[in-house]
Write a structure and sequence with these properties.
The complex is a heterotrimer of chains A (351), B (293) and C (411). Chain A is mainly alpha-helical and 351 residues long. Chain A has helices at 14-22, 24-44, 47-72, 80-98, 102-124, 129-147, 153-156, 177-201, 203-213, 215-220, 225-251, 261-274, 281-299, 304-318, 322-342, and strands at 162-163, 253-254. Chain B has one domain (2-217). The chains are: A mainly alpha (351), B mainly alpha (293), C alpha/beta (411).
C-alpha cells in the first residue's frame, strides 16, 4: 500500500509503531498523498474520465450528507433525491433566469436545502424507521411532479427542463472547463469532508450517535433530541443540495427525469455499500454508484440491472458493513497480525 | 353523482390491487420483521411463470395453483440461499439485498419475456355488470373477493394455527423462540414462501387489469407500501383497508379538487397518509409498540 | 485504534482506489479505414427499458448490413450504451462515445430529455447527431443546431393532422384528451390545440360549429391504471376522444372505454397503433372504429402479405432478430431508420468526414423505403431537418387498418 513507503525504518518496537501509527504525523502525510494523487489526475486522465470522477465526487458529497442522517443519526431517508433536485434546480434557475455567478448559486442551493430539510425534519421527529422511509419516499415522488407542475413551468421549464452553460476557469487559469470543474468539485468535497469529520468527531457527533443508539437514554442525559434531529436533517439536506447544484453545473442540464425515485434509492445503496456511519464510506459509495452501472452495462446489455443486482447482493453478503467497514476490519487485522508476529511483548499497549 | 359513484367503484377496484400486494408485504413483515421491496417484482415474475404455463396449454386453475406452489418454493429458496446470510446484518444491509433482488427480477423478466405487454387471462366473466348507469367489472369484483378471502385465511392462520403462531414468535423474538424449540430458520423460510405465494395471487389478479409487463408492479408496490403503512403494517386487515383508502382517495382528489388534478393526486394521497401517521405513528389499525428503556 | 487510524486508512484506500480507476485504459483508439463507428444510447435498464428493443433491433439490422459486405466495403461498428433514460448518464455515455470511442456519428439516441441534455454538447463538438429517436419538434432547427436531425414525423405535425380530421368530420365536436404528462404528451397536446385553432379560423367556424376541447386528463407513466381519467372524460360529455398514450395505457384505454359504456370517436396517436402490441391485447373487437394516422406498414396487417418489402422484412426478422425482441412496431421503426442511415452513408462514398456525413444527411431526395407506406418520400435539405413529413389516415376494421384519403402533410 501507498502508506508503507512512508513508514520510517527506525521504528522497531511494536509499541512504538502503534504510537507512531496513531500519531498526528502520518495522518497529515497520508492526507497529502491522497490530495497529491487526486490533484494530479488531470495530468494523466482524459477529460471524459475527469468528468466521471467529478460526478463520483459529487455523489460522494451527497452521500456524505445522507450518511450524517442515516449512518450517524439513524433517521432513514428514501427521499434525498428531492434535495439533490432542489439544489440542482436552484442553481439552474438562478443561472438561467438571473445570470448569477455559479459560485453564489451553490451557496443559495445549500441554504435553501438547509431550511427545507430542517422544516421537513420537524414533523419527521414523530415518526421513525419505515414510517419515516414512507414520508421521505413521498417527498421523492412528489418532487418531479412539482417540477413539471403547470403553475411552476415558467421557472422550471416544465418537462423540457433547463439547459445551462459550462463555466470557464477563472483568473485566466490554464485549465479547460472539465479540469476546472474537477478541481472545483474536489475542493468542495474536501471542505465537506473536513466539516463533516469535525461535526461527527465533536460534541454534536456524540449526541447524534447517542440519539441513534438510544434515544430515550440520550434524552435523559439532557440532549435536546428534537433540535439535533431536525438540525441534522437540515445539514444533511444542505450537503445533498450542494451536490445537486454541482451536478447541474457539470451536467449543464436539469429535467424532472433526472430526479426519479431511483436516484434516492441509489443514494441509499451508495451509503450502505460504502459503509454506514463512516465518513470515508461516502467516497467509496460515490465511486460505486458512478461506475458500477457502466460495468454492468459492459458485462451484459441484455440485462444490465441483473448484473447490478448481483453486484449489490454479493457486496452485501461479503461486506455486510459496507466497503469502509470491511476495510476497517481488514486494516485492524493487518496491523494486529503484524504486531503479534513482530514482537514478544504480548499484546500491544493501547494508547 | 353517478360519476362520483363510478369514481368510488373504480377507486375500490384499483385499491383492491394495492391491497392484494399490501397483504404480501404484511405477510413478510409478520414473519421476518422486514419490508421486502422486491415483493412486487417477485409477484410479477410469478405471474410470468403462470403466463408461460397457460400459454403452453395448461388450464387456468391448474396453472394458478401450480404457480402458487412454484412461488412458495421460490420464496423459500431465496430465503435459504441469500437472505439468511444477512439475517444478523444491519437492517439497511438487508434492504440493499432487497433492492438487488428487485433489479434482478425486473431485468431478467425483460430479458426472457421482452418488455411488450402481454394479455393475462381472468378467471371471471368478461361482460361488465350494469347497475343503472354504474358499470362494474366482474374481474374487479372477483379480484376484491379473492383479496378478502386471502385476508381471512391469513387472519385465521396467524391467530389460530400453531404454525402461524410459531412464525410470529420467530419473527418477534428469535432468541426466545429458539429456546422453546421453534426452528427459527425454517419459520423464516416459510414466511418468505407464503409471502411469495400471496404475491403471486396478487400478480395474477392485477395482470388482467393492467396487462403483464416487467414494470407492472413498480408503481403498485409504492401504493401497496403506503397502504400497508397507513393501515398499520402489523395488521393484515389494516393493510387491506389502507389499500382501498388509497385507491379511492387518489381518484376523488384527482377528479374533484381542481388544482390537484392527476398530476399531484399521488403526492396528495401520500401527504394525507403522512399526516395521519403523524397523529397515529403506528398506522390506523397498527399495534402501538412500546419501547423498553 | 480503529478510529484513530482513520485518516491513514482513508488515505491509503482512497489513493489506491483512485490509482486503480486512473489505470483504466483511456484508450483513444482511432478508427481504422475499414470501419464506420456509429454511437448510440438507449435505455436497456430501468423503467423505460421497453424502448431498448429499438436500440437492439438497430444492432441486428447492422449485422445484416455487415453480413452483406458493409457500406462501400466498410463494416459498421455499432456501439450502443445504456443510459437508463437518465439525462446525466446520457451525457456521460455520449462523452464516452465521442471522446473515447471516437465515433463518426451519433445515431438514434433515444428520448427527449436525454437528447436535450446533449443537444448543445454535440453541436459544439460538431458531431452528426442523426435521426434522433424522439418526435419532439425541436430537433429540426438547422439554424441553431446544424448537427442534430430528427426522423419520424414530429409530434406537433401529427397532432395537427388529427385536429384537421376532427374539424372536417365532426362538426361541433366536444373533445376529451388523455395525455402522458411528459414532453411527448405535452408536445402532442400543444400541436393539437394549435392545429385546432388554426383550422377553426381557416374554416371560419363559429359557435356550435367549432370543435372545442371539453376536458384534458393527464397520467403518469408510473400510474398503475388510467380508469379514473377515462371516467372523467366520459362524464365530460365528450364525443371525440383523442388518446395520447404509449402502448400499455392505450390498450387499457381501448378496453376500458367499452367496459364503462362510453362510445366516442376514438382517435389514437401513431405511437400506439400496432395491431399485435396494442390492439390485440386490448381486444380486436374493442378496437373497431379506431382512427389514427401512420407512415409505416404494420406486419400484422394481412394487406401486406404479398408485399415484397414486407417479405424482406420478415426474412430479416427470422434470420437476425431473436424471438423475444420481435416487437413489431419497434422493429419496423428500427429497420426503416437504419435503412435511412445506410442510404446516407452509402452516398458519402469514401469521404466519411463529419461535414460530409451531415451534408449528405441534409440532401436526401425522394427516398422511398420498403417498410414505409406506399408513396411516402423522405426529403431533407439544408433548411429542412424533418425527414418524414407525410402520413395517411387509417381506420381499424376489426382485422386490419384501412387507409383512407390522400397522403397528408402538415409540415
Amino acid at each position: 500500500m501507498v502508506t508503507s513507503t512512508v513508514t520510517p525504518k527506525t521504528i522497531k518496537s511494536p509499541a512504538a509503531r502503534t504510537a507512531w501509527l496513531n500519531g498526528r504525523y502520518p495522518r497529515v502525510a497520508a492526507m497529502a498523498v491522497v490530495l497529491v494523487v487526486a490533484a494530479s489526475l488531470p495530468l494523466v486522465m482524459s477529460d471524459y474520465r475527469l468528468f466521471q470522477f467529478t460526478l463520483a465526487y459529487i455523489y460522494a458529497i451527497a452521500l456524505l450528507g445522507l450518511n450524517l442522517l442515516i449512518g450517524y443519526n439513524g433517521q432513514f431517508s428514501l427521499g434525498h433525491g428531492a434535495f439533490f433536485a432542489i439544489g440542482a434546480y436552484t442553481t439552474a434557475i438562478m443561472i438561467d433566469r438571473w445570470d448569477i455567478g455559479y459560485g453564489w448559486t451553490i451557496i443559495a442551493a445549500g441554504a435553501i436545502c438547509l431550511v427545507v430539510g430542517f422544516l421537513f425534519g420537524i414533523p419527521a421527529l414523530r415518526i421513525e424507521g419505515m414510517y419515516l422511509a414512507l414520508a421521505t419516499l413521498a417527498l421523492a415522488l412528489a418532487t418531479p411532479q412539482f417540477l413539471k407542475y403547470h403553475l411552476f413551468e415558467g421557472w422550471t421549464g416544465g418537462v423540457q427542463g433547463i439547459v445551462i452553460d459550462k463555466p470557464e476557469a477563472p483568473f485566466g487559469l490554464p485549465l479547460n472547463p472539465d479540469q476546472w470543474l474537477y478541481f472545483f468539485t474536489l475542493a468542495i468535497l474536501l471542505l465537506a469532508f473536513v466539516l463533516g469529520w469535525n461535526l461527527v468527531r465533536g460534541r454534536t457527533g456524540r449526541a447524534l450517535v447517542a440519539i441513534r443508539d438510544h434515544r430515550i437514554a440520550a434524552q435523559s442525559m439532557g440532549i435536546n433530541t428534537a433540535l439535533y434531529k431536525s438540525l441534522i436533517f437540515g445539514v444533511s439536506a444542505l450537503y445533498t443540495g450542494v451536490a445537486g447544484a454541482l451536478s447541474a453545473i457539470v451536467i449543464q442540464f436539469v429535467a424532472p427525469d433526472s430526479f426519479t425515485l431511483f436516484l434516492s434509492i441509489f443514494f441509499v445503496v451508495g451509503i450502505v455499500v460504502g459503509g454506514l456511519g463512516s465518513i470515508t464510506g461516502a467516497i467509496y459509495g460515490g465511486f460505486f454508484i458512478q461506475f458500477v452501472p457502466n460495468i454492468a452495462d459492459a458485462i451484459s446489455q441484455a440485462a444490465p440491472w441483473a448484473i447490478y443486482g448481483i453486484f449489490l447482493i454479493v457486496f452485501m453478503l461479503v461486506m455486510p458493513l459496507g466497503i469502509a467497514g470491511f476495510l476497517a476490519i481488514l486494516w485492524h487485522r493487518l496491523i494486529m497480525g503484524r504486531l503479534a508476529s513482530d514482537g514478544n511483548e504480548g499484546h500491544p499497549t493501547e494508547t | 353523482m353517478e360519476s362520483f359513484l363510478q369514481q368510488v367503484v373504480s377507486g375500490l377496484a384499483t385499491g383492491g390491487i394495492y391491497a392484494a400486494l399490501a397483504l404480501a408485504l404484511v405477510m413478510i413483515y409478520h414473519s421476518t420483521n422486514h419490508l421486502n421491496f422486491a415483493q412486487g417484482e417477485m409477484a410479477m415474475f410469478s405471474t410470468y411463470i403462470s403466463w408461460s404455463l397457460i400459454n403452453a396449454g395448461v388450464p387456468y386453475w391448474i396453472a394458478f395453483f401450480a404457480t402458487l406452489v412454484i412461488a412458495f418454493a421460490g420464496g423459500v429458496v431465496i430465503e435459504r440461499l441469500i437472505i439468511r446470510w444477512v439475517e444478523d446484518a444491519p437492517v439497511l444491509t438487508v434492504v440493499i439485498v432487497f433492492i438487488g433482488l428487485l433489479m434482478i427480477f425486473n431485468s431478467v423478466a425483460g430479458w426472457i419475456y421482452s418488455y411488450d405487454i402481454k394479455v393475462f387471462p381472468s378467471p371471471f366473466p368478461d361482460q361488465p355488470i350494469q347497475i343503472g348507469t354504474l358499470y362494474l367489472g366482474p374481474h374487479d369484483v372477483g379480484a376484491i373477493a379473492v383479496t378478502l378471502i386471502v385476508l381471512a385465511i391469513l387472519f385465521l392462520f396467524f391467530r389460530y394455527t400453531s404454525l402461524g403462531l410459531a412464525m410470529r414468535a420467530a419473527a418477534e423474538n428469535p432468541e426466545s423462540s429458539r429456546l422453546v424449540g421453534i426452528r427459527v430458520g425454517r419459520m423464516l423460510g416459510m414466511g418468505w414462501g407464503l409471502a411469495a405465494l400471496i404475491g403471486a395471487v396478487a400478480g395474477m389478479m392485477v395482470a388482467p387489469i393492467v396487462f403483464l409487463d416487467p414494470n407492472m408492479m413498480a408503481g403498485i408496490l409504492i401504493y401497496a407500501f403506503a397502504g400497508a403503512m397507513f393501515g398499520g403494517i402489523s395488521s393484515p386487515g389494516g393493510a387491506v383497508f389502507g389499500g382501498f383508502f388509497l385507491g379511492v382517495t387518489e381518484n376523488l382528489a384527482g377528479s374533484y379538487i381542481p388544482f390537484i388534478g392527476n398530476e399531484l393526486k399521488l403526492s396528495v394521497a401520500l401527504v394525507i397518509i403522512v399526516v395521519v401517521l403523524l397523529v397515529r405513528p403506528s398506522g390506523i389499525f397498527g399495534k402501538v409498540t412500546v419501547s423498553r428503556v | 485504534m480503529c478510529s484513530r487510524n482513520h485518516w491513514l486508512r482513508l488515505a491509503a484506500m482512497t489513493a489506491g482506489l483512485i490509482l486503480v480507476f486512473a489505470a483504466f485504459p483511456g484508450d483513444q483508439t482511432a478508427y481504422g479505414q475499414d470501419e464506420i463507428r456509429i454511437g448510440n444510447t438507449n435505455p436497456y435498464s430501468g423503467p423505460a427499458s421497453s424502448y431498448g428493443t429499438i436500440g437492439r433491433a438497430i444492432g441486428f439490422y447492422f449485422n445484416k448490413v455487415n453480413d452483406e459486405g458493409g457500406i462501400n466495403g466498410r463494416k459498421i461498428n455499432y456501439i450502443s450504451y445504456d443510459d437508463g433514460y437518465s439525462p446525466p448518464r446520457t451525457v456521460e455515455q455520449i462523452r464516452k462515445l465521442v471522446e473515447q470511442d471516437r465515433v463518426h456519428l451519433l445515431f438514434q439516441t433515444l428520448g427527449t430529455p436525454t437528447n436535450s441534455a446533449i443537444h448543445k454538447y454535440v453541436n459544439k463538438k460538431k458531431i452528426p447527431h442523426l435521426f434522433v429517436a424522439t418526435g419532439a419538434t425541436k430537433w429540426g432547427n438547422p439554424k441553431e443546431y446544424p448537427w442534430t436531425m430528427g426522423w419520424q414525423p414530429n409530434y406537433q405535425t401529427v397532432s395537427k393532422i388529427f385536429a384537421q380530421y376532427v374539424i372536417e368530420n365532426v362538426p361541433g365536436a366536444r373533445i376529451g384528451i388523455l395525455y402522458q404528462n411528459d414532453d411527448y404528451g405535452k408536445d402532442y397536446l400543444y400541436g393539437f390545440k394549435a392545429g385546432l385553432a388554426e383550422g377553426i379560423e381557416r374554416a371560419g367556424l363559429t359557435g356550435d360549429q367549432a370543435p372545442r376541447i371539453v376536458m384534458e386528463q393527464s397520467y403518469e407513466v408510473t400510474d398503475p391504471t388510467i380508469d379514473s381519467q377515462i371516467i372523467n372524460l366520459k362524464t365530460s360529455g365528450a364525443n371525440v376522444f383523442f388518446n395520447i398514450s404509449i402502448p400499455k395505457f392505450a390498450a387499457q384505454a381501448i378496453k376500458r372505454i367499452k367496459a364503462i359504456g362510453w362510445d366516442p370517436l376514438h382517435i389514437i396517436n401513431d405511437v400506439s397503433t400496432s395491431i399485435d402490441a396494442v390492439l390485440r391485447p386490448a381486444g380486436l373487437e374493442n378496437a373497431i372504429g379506431l382512427i389514427s394516422a401512420q407512415y409505416i406498414k404494420d406486419p400484422a396487417s394481412p394487406e401486406w402479405a404479398d408485399d415484397p418489402g414486407m417479405i424482406d422484412f420478415l426474412k430479416f426478422m427470422d434470420k437476425y432478430v431473436p424471438a423475444e425482441s420481435r416487437n413489431p412496431a419497434f422493429t419496423v421503426y428500427a429497420y426503416s431508420v437504419s435503412q435511412t442511415l445506410v442510404y446516407v452513408l452509402e452516398r458519402c462514398g469514401d469521404d466519411l468526414s463529419r461535414e460530409n456525413i451531415m451534408r449528405q444527411a441534409a440532401n436526401i431526395r425522394n427516398l422511398e423505403l420498403p417498410m414505409l407506406l406506399p408513396g411516402i418520400k423522405i426529403n431533407t435539405g439544408p433548411d429542412d431537418f424533418y425527414p418524414i413529413e407525410q402520413m395517411q389516415m387509417q381506420r381499424f376494421d376489426g382485422e386490419k387498418w384501412v387507409r383512407f384519403g390522400d397522403l397528408l402533410s402538415a409540415g
